[in-house]
Amino acid sequence: MGLRAVTATNMDTDGITRPWYHLPFPRNTRFVGRDQILGTLRDRLFVRKSPRVALVGLGGVGKTQVALALALWTKENITDCSVFWVPALSSATFEQAYTHIARQLDIRRGDDQDVKEVVRQYLSSEAAGRWLLVINNADDIKLVCGSPNMPESLDSYLPQSENGRIMFTTRSRDVAIRVAEDTIKLDEFSLSEAKELLGKLVTRKDLIHDDASVTELLRELTYLPLAITQAAAYLERNEVSIAEYLELLRNTEKDMVDLLSEELPDRTRYQQSKNAVATTWVVSFQKIRELDGKAADLLSFMSQIEPKLIPQSLLPELGSRAQTVSAIGTLCGYAFVSKRDDMLDMHSLVHLATRIWLSREGLETQTVETVMRRLAGKFPTDEYENRHTWRAYLPHALRILQRADADDMEDRYELHFWVGRCLQVEGRIREAVHCFEECWRWRSGQFVEEHPLGLASQLALARAYQSDGQIKKAVGLLEQVVVVRERTLAEEHPDRLASQHVLAGAYEADGQIKKAVGLLEQVVAVRKRTLAEEHPDRLASQHELARAYQSDGQIKKAVGLLEQVMAVRERTLAEDHPDRLTSQHELARAYQSDGQIKKAVGLLEQVVAVRKRTLAEGHPDRLASQHELARAYQSDGQIKKAVGLLEQVVAVRERTLAEEHPDRLASQHELARAYQSDGQIKKAVGLLEQVVAVGERTLTEEHPDRLTSQYNLAMAYRADGQISQALELIKQVVAVESRTLQEDHPDRLASLSAFENLLQVASQ
């Protein structure tokens, strides 16, 4: 049968074909913004005369609304141009639209003719005149472009004509590139566009008076038009404020899922379309799973870790590098993921929607286990050389460890262990304690007492307790570890020596200085016999022994040993290596105790400069070196500098540490001494009274820190004219030190001298 293109009723009386319009949606009166994109589309289609242009963007970003706005503009401004709208959701919707166009144009066809081919031929002919064809939702690459199993593609039924233009909307960059010469990316709204849309959507204008809360809400919704529309509908229907909506959004993941899963009626979207943020991408997820299973695996994996700054090295192995690149390309093509150097960012709402999809598909627990296994296998040790890697991995490991799933997987607790080690290096002590507690709880229930993994986690927990100021807990755990290792391991075994070393450090922190010195002398002797001079473990034990010597008043021994350690570390380690900085810090302390104040100040200024450059404000090591520099300034007569620096340190430690934490007490104690040197006696007395009260409640009578703070409070009382209080307190100190310290110990001698002077003052 021949083709009769149009009947006489389709023409004006002068024989010119009149324009026809097939648009399935009414004008969207709430449409805002997008002026730049619309201008670009008009320019490409009608000025540069590109035959095909594709608008590509994330589901819910507003592609259909932009296409509708362009179609209406064309109808109103290019009056001889027909506009036809064809949804490419499926073969059926495509054919239905073509059937409607054929009927509208009164195109006659035979019974054996395919309506799609008839419409293609007609629109390709001169008789059709000017036209714009919108192919909306061209997301399925097999449907649109064909495949070996589906040779008939929708693209093969699209017309070509000098008078015609085709605009596609698609979520898939691959589709866009295949079907159009020009592709234009549609991003989320700008803040101003998002505010304008919200303003049009809500009738209760009091909701949007608080600009700060509006901005906060829009940022949470990533400026995505569909999410904003959905939130506005919820606000209106439930009569809640933006603050209340935000609270729900941030409360629990279940609340967030409930909010973002609510379908809303929308006459400007297809009836079968998902109108909720949490479900709008389901069709895309399903298509990705069909087309590229490895990309779906990658998407699932990323949904369980942090959505931003995902190192590509952390991703699961997908076979060849080419397959990984292809899978990432697929996800970028759907705008689910974007690349930033060797990192990936996942859209935060897609991140949530993927988890919802996995849950509904029954795949969530399996995915969590896969991610846990991968991170446990990839997470590095806490060596300094690995710091860039574990800093990049930490947020993702912490995210997966928050999950309650996979709570009986050994990999989970292996990950807890190494995450804890790295958190401790970073100075995030409370978080490290939690990780080690979880690890030890599980391992102690799984392994016999002498199992290496159980002992390693017990040792790590004890070290974290010590850093957190929980000294008694640390000592108790470490004594257990040492007993087991001394019973089961040879004298020179690294694990036995390591646990003795750590226990000695805990003894020192607990004021048991003689025990610390004795144990460390054993460890150093064995390590000197078995390890090379520059071995990190040998240097670490020599360093710790020097600290113990200093606490024991053996200052010359401490200085000599620390100078040896520092010489080796300066020769073998980078300037900013933590071990090198620690030995410089400790040597400066020893210099100060030895009266070499200028040396101490110079060395500490170097350490503080490096640590300020490389560590966060609240990092324990940075605060420790600032504290020590302030002490050195005070000894050097630079009192104002000392006060200023100590006030900074005390402010941070009071904000971040418990009242009884040794480091907090030490900095308060030192600030009180600086106040006294600066003539601010009342401030000094008040602060020292606080420190002494906490020390008397939490430390043993003979603990050096308790005795030192009591001694200094007595001196402050004397400076304040409170002689009887000073005498009573110094008398207590002398009594304890005469029982616990050697006769020639500097602290004992100083207390005795102060007591004698106070007796003279009191008798006058």
TrEMBL record:
Keywords recorded for this protein, A-Z: Hydrolase
Domain NB-ARC positions: 38-206
PANTHER family: AAA+ ATPASE DOMAIN-CONTAINING PROTEIN-RELATED, ATP/GTP-BINDING PROTEIN-RELATED
Gene3D superfamilies per record: P-loop containing nucleotide triphosphate hydrolases (3.40.50.300), Tetratricopeptide repeat domain (1.25.40.10)
UniProt-recorded Gene Ontology molecular function terms: ADP binding; hydrolase activity
Protein's name according to its UniProt entry: P-loop containing nucleoside triphosphate hydrolase protein
InterPro entries: NB-ARC (IPR002182), NLR-like (IPR053137), P-loop_NTPase (IPR027417), TPR-like_helical_dom_sf (IPR011990), TPR_rpt (IPR019734)
A Pfam family assignment: NB-ARC
